[in-house]
């Protein structure tokens, strides 16, 4: 028995030792050692760097019982073509980024690899579909002493994304937005408050213009080609790239230098850090379809795909560049004790108009486990988020210029360096704020821990706290986030309240499934391509046949590829006109289109006749676009091709809110606005009557659709077809605006100038009243002067003194008294004075109740004399 216990103890002991040996830190619970020849890999990198063509690089190793064959190429999609490294003095220099690689795992369809080769050692991540994501890091990040292995590899399955959750206050997340939400929202709305009403009216007008053009040729084309699988290309188009400015502060520089590397290696490590974060969010955002809750485009739904990020400029701050050792010349980035909100503000104080977003990476340990903070974008009238410009904001009594297209990320949490996966998701989360998404909430958008069917898949990216990391939802945006982000993207594209800052990436990428620039076709990578007409992109190498049409047995190129358009058959031939195949469905304003037989692309369709009813007879067509008002149809005909009527606002300023939500028309150059509600059989407006008959077969009045502007753009028609004012801030806000608006203040100023003598009289009366108040209340005010009379209580001045009752005289009784009679006073006893005792003092020193001390002494003396007698 004893031997068995010892054996069990030793068994558990060795398990504990080996388990502890596999644990890297609080984030990584298991890892494997990785060793290969750094010299060999470095030489391969140098050959690929010197190559004039896109030579691939191969890295093979074994880990987790698998053989990894990484086929790598120089990354082209991370850094912009005009990428520069900027110094503190403003000078810029080109930097070699050829050590940044991307690629695939050979034999694994859909795999993705990103990393960097510095000093012959690869660090990065490997995405294996159906398995997990593996992360490879240099061993010096975890071990201070030299090890026989130069790298470690670990799986996301062995990651604890939030090991310090128990240290944070209850309800606090790794994003500090909730802590500073009120202050940030207050600042975001300040520069626009003065013009709030005008902006709301303008937004409403632009909203309706978009609604009217929803069935435009471009919109119809986008919707139709979307249904053919081309939606990704036709949403954001070529301008789909958000250019970023990424910086690191001196604290992060010191973190890398503390690992004993040279300045050049530290610089390359930080550039690799930037590239890894951008690659991570590119994979998330580019694969996401940001769409509204309403999916049907005919009902106002819309979506965007293909969002991409590129690094246009970087800055690496050091203690020398920021003059941290100088007492007078040191910049604010040298301050080690900046909280997260002030650190974000520090980034926002600089002009970032050239960029879509500007971020600073640091290694500061912020309070409450905060890992990031960013300004939230808005599709309404608030400042902040993507494409925001450098503008003035009130700060106290001063005005300060700030850029609110900013955010910050830290790599330290409770004194420990976070795992790359954690900071990647943090970066995606904060950029999500910039794109307009608040934190997820509710069972549908934060399902983990609820009873919903989606709970097992975890929370989404925009959840306030760190997610599990290995669940399917952790890499996705919730429907709530998609709806908000899609609306911000729409406002950016339409330039509703910001200028569109998205640009072309300048990079054509063979293998992305989109036919671009010199490509004849694009069916993706070889492992994914099902197209027999097109040469697929080969993993790990580039050939002249990539994304080119294949040849038949005679050596002739095929006519087309289905990736070129819907009018190409799987046999690589054009669809003939005799097939009468529809390639674009018809709409209210555009006829259906059929294949021409000469191109894989769908030809342009013919338009329906102008003034054809469209959008459920709420608009009419013009040049193939459902954009014109119904009023344009009045009087329109073969003999009169130009309508003389246009839409107007009926009953403007009227108290009848319902009357304002009926279609009204007026003749050009006329001031008479005729409402459809006023049309009767006896009405002289024949053209208007013909319009009503054509729409509903009678003279029923035409109600404007919900959301239509009314009252001269000062309101909108609600679902009850009543005109509702756009300023619905409530009675308190209206009262505030009434009192403190410029017109009221100007009236007050004019009255003061005109009736200055009344103002002087009121001021004099106020002084007199204040003097009387002070005089009356002075007796109740305690004083520190020992000679002053004690202060009276309010009750002492209000209480009426009671008079003593009158003495009564009793007639002598014939009966002897039965009560006790006091014996005669002894000799020497002085009788106490008759009458009431003196009043009590109002000072706090006297007794609260009972006799005064002097009366007690007299009473005791009398008792003593009594005893002696």
TrEMBL record:
Residues 852-869 have a biased composition (Basic and acidic residues). PANTHER family: ADAM10/ADAM17 METALLOPEPTIDASE FAMILY MEMBER (PTHR45702), KUZBANIAN, ISOFORM A (PTHR45702:SF2). Residues 1-21 form the signal peptide. Residues 810-822 have a biased composition (Low complexity). It comes from Mizuhopecten yessoensis. Residues 507-610 form the Disintegrin domain. Keywords: Cleavage on pair of basic residues, Disulfide bond, Integrin, Membrane, Metal-binding, Signal, Transmembrane, Transmembrane helix, Zinc. This is ADAM10 endopeptidase. Its EC number is 3.4.24.81. The active site is at residue 430. The keyword Disulfide bond applies. GO terms for cellular component: plasma membrane. Zn(2+) binds at residues 429, 433, 439. The chain crosses the membrane at residues 755-774. GO terms for molecular function: metal ion binding; metalloendopeptidase activity. GO terms for biological process: integrin-mediated signaling pathway; membrane protein ectodomain proteolysis; Notch signaling pathway. Residues 349-491 form the Peptidase M12B domain. It is an enzyme of class 3 (hydrolase). It holds the Pfam family ADAM10_Cys-rich. The lineage of its organism: Eukaryota, Metazoa, Spiralia, Lophotrochozoa, Mollusca. Residues 782-869 are annotated as: Disordered.
């Amino acid at each position: 028995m004893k031997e068995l216990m010892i054996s069990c103890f030793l068994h558990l002991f060795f398990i504990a030792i080996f388990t502890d040996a596999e644990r890297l830190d609080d984030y990584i619970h298991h890892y494997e050692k990785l060793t290969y020849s750094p010299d060999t890999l470095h030489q391969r990198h140098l050959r690929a760097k010197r190559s004039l063509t896109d030579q691939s690089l191969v890295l093979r190793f074994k880990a987790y019982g698998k053989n990894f064959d990484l086929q790598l190429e120089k990354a082209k999609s991370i850094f912009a073509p005009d990428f520069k490294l900027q110094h503190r003095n403003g000078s810029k220099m080109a930097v070699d980024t050829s050590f940044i690689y991307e690629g695939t795992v050979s034999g694994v369809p859909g795999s993705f690899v990103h990393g960097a080769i510095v000093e012959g050692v690869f660090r990065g991540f490997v995405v294996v579909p159906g398995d997990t994501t593996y992360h490879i890091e240099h061993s010096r990040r975890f071990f201070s002493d030299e090890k026989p292995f130069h790298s470690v590899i670990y799986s996301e399955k062995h990651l604890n994304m939030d090991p310090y959750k128990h240290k944070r206050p209850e309800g606090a997340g790794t994003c500090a937005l909730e802590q500073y939400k009120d202050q940030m929202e207050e600042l975001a709305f300040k520069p626009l408050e003065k013009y709030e009403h005008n902006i709301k009216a303008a937004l409403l007008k632009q909203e309706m213009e978009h609604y009217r053009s929803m069935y435009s040729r471009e919109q119809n084309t986008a919707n139709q080609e979307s249904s053919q699988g081309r939606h990704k290309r036709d949403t954001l188009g070529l301008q789909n790239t958000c250019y970023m400015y990424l910086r690191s502060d001196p604290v992060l520089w010191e973190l890398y230098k503390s690992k004993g590397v040279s300045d050049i290696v530290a610089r390359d490590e930080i550039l690799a850090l930037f590239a890894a974060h951008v690659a991570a969010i590119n994979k998330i955002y580019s694969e996401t379809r940001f769409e509204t809750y309403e999916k049907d485009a005919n009902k106002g739904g819309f979506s965007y795909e293909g969002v991409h990020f590129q690094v246009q400029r970087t800055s690496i701050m050091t203690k020398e560049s920021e003059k941290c050792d100088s007492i007078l010349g040191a910049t604010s980035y040298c301050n080690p004790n900046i909280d997260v909100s002030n650190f974000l503000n520090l980034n926002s104080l600089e002009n970032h108009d050239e960029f879509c977003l500007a971020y600073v990476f640091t290694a500061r340990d912020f309070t409450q486990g905060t890992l990031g903070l960013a300004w939230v974008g808005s599709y309404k009238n608030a400042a902040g988020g993507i494409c925001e410009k450098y503008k003035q904001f009130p700060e106290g009594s001063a005005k300060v210029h700030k850029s609110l297209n900013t955010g910050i990320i830290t790599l330290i949490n409770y004194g420990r360096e976070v795992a790359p996966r954690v900071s990647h998701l943090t970066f995606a989360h904060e950029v999500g704020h910039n794109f307009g998404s608040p934190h997820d909430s509710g069972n549908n958008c934060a399902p983990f821990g609820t009873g919903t069917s989606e709970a097992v898949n975890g929370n989404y990216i925009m959840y306030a706290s760190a997610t599990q990391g290995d669940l399917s939802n952790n890499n996705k945006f919730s429907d709530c986030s998609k709806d908000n982000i899609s609306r911000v993207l729409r406002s950016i594209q339409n330039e509703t309240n910001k200028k569109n800052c998205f640009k072309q990436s300048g990079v054509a990428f063979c293998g992305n499934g989109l036919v671009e620039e010199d490509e004849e076709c694009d069916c993706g990578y070889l492992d994914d391509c099902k197209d027999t007409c097109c040469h697929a992109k080969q993993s790990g190498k580039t050939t002249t046949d990539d994304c080119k049409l294949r040849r038949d047995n005679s050596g002739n190129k095929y006519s087309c590829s289905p990736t070129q358009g819907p009018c190409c058959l799987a046999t690589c031939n054009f669809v003939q006109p005799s097939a009468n195949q529809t390639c674009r469905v018809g709409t209210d304003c555009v006829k259906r289109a059929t294949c021409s037989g000469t191109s894989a692309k769908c030809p342009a369709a013919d338009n329906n006749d102008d003034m054809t009813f469209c959008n459920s007879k709420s608009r009419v067509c013009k040049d193939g676009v459902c954009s014109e008002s119904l009023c344009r149809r009045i009087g329109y005909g073969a003999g009169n091709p130009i309508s003389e009527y246009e839409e107007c606002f009926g009953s403007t300023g009227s108290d009848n809110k319902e009357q304002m939500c009926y279609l009204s028309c007026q003749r050009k150059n006329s001031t008479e606005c005729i409402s459809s509600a006023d049309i009767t059989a006896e009405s002289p407006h024949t053209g208007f009557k013909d319009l009503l008959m054509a729409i509903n077969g009678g003279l029923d009045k035409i109600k404007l659709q919900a959301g239509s502007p009314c009252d001269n753009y000062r309101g909108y028609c609600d679902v009850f077809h009543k005109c509702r004012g756009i300023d619905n801030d409530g009675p308190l806000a209206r009262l505030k605006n009434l009192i403190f608006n410029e017109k009221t203040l100007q009236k007050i100023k004019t009255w003061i100038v005109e009736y200055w003598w009344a103002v002087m009289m009121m001021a004099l009366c106020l002084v007199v009243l204040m003097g009387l108040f002070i005089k009356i209340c002075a007796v109740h005010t305690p004083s520190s002067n020992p000679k002053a009379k004690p202060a009276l209580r309010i009750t002492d001045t209000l209480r009426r003194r009671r008079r003593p009752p009158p003495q009564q005289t009793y007639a002598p009784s014939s009966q002897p008294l039965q009560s006790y009679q006091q014996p005669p006073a002894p000799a020497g006893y002085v009788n106490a004075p008759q009458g009431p005792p003196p009043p009590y003092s109002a000072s706090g020193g006297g007794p609260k109740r009972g006799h005064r001390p002097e009366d007690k002494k007299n009473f005791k003396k009398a008792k003593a004399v009594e005893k002696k007698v």
